[in-house]
Amino acid sequence: MASRLLLPLLLLIPLLPPAEPKLSVDYYKKTCPNFAKIVQDVVVEKQLAVPTTAAGALRLFFHDCIVGGCDASLLISSNPFNRAERDNEVNQALPGDAFDVVIRAKTKLELECPGIVSCADVLAEATRDLVSMVGGPYFPVRLGRKDSVESRATDVEGHIALPNMSLTHIIEQFSSKGFSVQEMVALTGAHTIGFSHCSEFANRIYNFSSTADYDPTMNPDYAQGLKKLCANYKNDSTIAAFNDPMTPGKFDNMYYLNLQKGVGLLASDQIMASDPRTKPFVDLYAANQSAFFEAFAHAMEKVSVHNVKTGKKGEVRRRCDAPNTLQGS
Ligand code: HEM
Ligand SMILES: *[C@@H]1O[C@H](CO)[C@@H](O)[C@H](O)[C@H]1NC(C)=O
Ligand SMILES: *[C@@H]1O[C@H](CO)[C@@H](O)[C@H](O)[C@H]1NC(C)=O
Ligand SMILES: *[C@@H]1O[C@H](CO)[C@@H](O)[C@H](O)[C@H]1NC(C)=O
Ligand SMILES: *[C@@H]1O[C@H](CO)[C@@H](O)[C@H](O)[C@H]1NC(C)=O
């Protein structure tokens, strides 16, 4: 009799998910008590020396998290046998200084508490510190992510929005990862800092259509300024424009105010100010910076735990640019 009852019970047990180790803000409290201070010191020094670091790190972090979770897979270098995420076309413009700030912090952490702190946690913490440092909101970063043991350029396909995609496509991409339209609009407020290269918006300012030289949704003075700036972009691929020309280095809600005036740089930015699905949120964040900061902070917290690997699902890499199996001992 008893065995008849037990059998179905035993079959049920494997279906229960194993207890997942949870992330927590004080994950390194005992094992690396100076974690936050070490990261903060490196971030401040780097950002003062190279003010483009914050924007670079924010984009790096987003691109890492949205492809297979926040697991520092984007920090792995390619080798003769494998092309890594980093070498997918959409990631090629990520600035070296963004990688460098993580490597610097990781190097110091390895001296103080070897083998303890993951590269994914360093990137998450450094990004939060950098966003706050340039004027953006503070948000808690829960810790305990593990690093991936692999990285493939092909895994990036279809996960990262491009400026020439339709808004419908972009909304679908975000929603497939659990982000609402409102969260998408808030996250894209990240374009209040940093640069975009001319090739990302050239189609809007040169030979736009048979009837218009530049995109008519653009402010005319803005379009003229960009045409001048980018005149030689085909020869010089390094030419880039500020995403937010009004307050380029400050994390604020100017991005949304710009959109209302036709001063959005990417087609995917500008469309959000007119499409009825996104316009209400653009108008809200343009009118109320606190509302933007609150929404951005919440959405970033959500990004920062997206698909994270914990427990045995990953490793703590000794070096951020290669999985441990490929590192000498
Ligand atoms: C709506 C979809 C989005 C599209 C189509 C998009 C596209 C782009 C493009 C094309 C660039 C210029 C890259 C270059 O030329 O170097 C850029 C820059 C940037 N993006 Fe986005 N992005 C989107 C959403 C986001 C989100 C959600 C974040 C972060 C939360 C973000 C953060 C950044 C930052 C900080 C930069 C400046 C990078 C730098 O100065 O180095 N973007 N984005
Ligand atoms: C969008 O741009 C990418 C890369 O710049 C290009 O490969 C793709 O064909 C473009 N898509 C459309 C729909 O124009
Ligand atoms: C725009 O079109 C004109 C005429 O077809 C051409 O000469 C010019 O090179 C084009 N400009 C760009 C930036 O593609
Ligand atoms: C671009 O480079 C080509 C070849 O290097 C040169 O012939 C051309 O004059 C350059 N164009 C501009 C606008 O500088
Ligand atoms: C702006 O947003 C904040 C945060 O959501 C809210 O508390 C505040 O009441 C809003 N201010 C106005 C003027 O609506």
UniProtKB/TrEMBL annotation:
<dbReference type="Pfam" id="PF00141">
    <property type="entry name" value="peroxidase"/>
</dbReference>
<feature type="binding site">
    <location>
        <position position="71"/>
    </location>
    <ligand>
        <name>Ca(2+) 1</name>
    </ligand>
</feature>
<dbReference type="InterPro" id="IPR000823">
    <property type="entry name" value="Peroxidase_pln"/>
</dbReference>
<keyword id="KW-0106">Calcium</keyword>
<feature type="disulfide bond">
    <location>
        <begin position="119"/>
        <end position="320"/>
    </location>
</feature>
<feature type="binding site">
    <location>
        <position position="73"/>
    </location>
    <ligand>
        <name>Ca(2+) 1</name>
    </ligand>
</feature>
<feature type="binding site">
    <location>
        <position position="69"/>
    </location>
    <ligand>
        <name>Ca(2+) 1</name>
    </ligand>
</feature>
<keyword id="KW-0732">Signal</keyword>
<keyword id="KW-0575">Peroxidase</keyword>
<protein>
    <recommendedName>
        <fullName>Peroxidase</fullName>
        <ecNumber>1.11.1.7</ecNumber>
    </recommendedName>
</protein>
<dbReference type="GO" id="GO:0005576">
    <property type="term" value="C:extracellular region"/>
</dbReference>
<feature type="binding site">
    <location>
        <position position="64"/>
    </location>
    <ligand>
        <name>Ca(2+) 1</name>
    </ligand>
</feature>
<dbReference type="InterPro" id="IPR010255">
    <property type="entry name" value="Haem_peroxidase_sf"/>
</dbReference>
<keyword id="KW-0964">Secreted</keyword>
<keyword id="KW-1015">Disulfide bond</keyword>
<dbReference type="InterPro" id="IPR002016">
    <property type="entry name" value="Haem_peroxidase"/>
</dbReference>
<feature type="binding site">
    <location>
        <position position="85"/>
    </location>
    <ligand>
        <name>Ca(2+) 1</name>
    </ligand>
</feature>
<keyword id="KW-0479">Metal-binding</keyword>
<feature type="active site" description="Proton acceptor">
    <location>
        <position position="63"/>
    </location>
</feature>
<feature type="binding site">
    <location>
        <position position="247"/>
    </location>
    <ligand>
        <name>Ca(2+) 2</name>
    </ligand>
</feature>
<dbReference type="GO" id="GO:0020037">
    <property type="term" value="F:heme binding"/>
</dbReference>
<feature type="binding site">
    <location>
        <position position="67"/>
    </location>
    <ligand>
        <name>Ca(2+) 1</name>
    </ligand>
</feature>
<feature type="binding site">
    <location>
        <position position="192"/>
    </location>
    <ligand>
        <name>Ca(2+) 2</name>
    </ligand>
</feature>
<feature type="binding site">
    <location>
        <position position="244"/>
    </location>
    <ligand>
        <name>Ca(2+) 2</name>
    </ligand>
</feature>
<dbReference type="InterPro" id="IPR033905">
    <property type="entry name" value="Secretory_peroxidase"/>
</dbReference>
<dbReference type="InterPro" id="IPR019794">
    <property type="entry name" value="Peroxidases_AS"/>
</dbReference>
<dbReference type="GO" id="GO:0046872">
    <property type="term" value="F:metal ion binding"/>
</dbReference>
<feature type="binding site" description="axial binding residue">
    <location>
        <position position="191"/>
    </location>
    <ligand>
        <name>heme b</name>
    </ligand>
</feature>
<keyword id="KW-0349">Heme</keyword>
<keyword id="KW-0408">Iron</keyword>
<keyword id="KW-0560">Oxidoreductase</keyword>
<feature type="disulfide bond">
    <location>
        <begin position="198"/>
        <end position="230"/>
    </location>
</feature>
<dbReference type="GO" id="GO:0042744">
    <property type="term" value="P:hydrogen peroxide catabolic process"/>
</dbReference>
<comment type="similarity">
    <text>Belongs to the peroxidase family. Ascorbate peroxidase subfamily.</text>
</comment>
<feature type="disulfide bond">
    <location>
        <begin position="65"/>
        <end position="70"/>
    </location>
</feature>
<dbReference type="GO" id="GO:0006979">
    <property type="term" value="P:response to oxidative stress"/>
</dbReference>
<dbReference type="InterPro" id="IPR019793">
    <property type="entry name" value="Peroxidases_heam-ligand_BS"/>
</dbReference>
<feature type="disulfide bond">
    <location>
        <begin position="32"/>
        <end position="113"/>
    </location>
</feature>
<keyword id="KW-0376">Hydrogen peroxide</keyword>
<feature type="site" description="Transition state stabilizer">
    <location>
        <position position="59"/>
    </location>
</feature>
<comment type="function">
    <text>Removal of H(2)O(2), oxidation of toxic reductants, biosynthesis and degradation of lignin, suberization, auxin catabolism, response to environmental stresses such as wounding, pathogen attack and oxidative stress. These functions might be dependent on each isozyme/isoform in each plant tissue.</text>
</comment>
<keyword id="KW-0325">Glycoprotein</keyword>
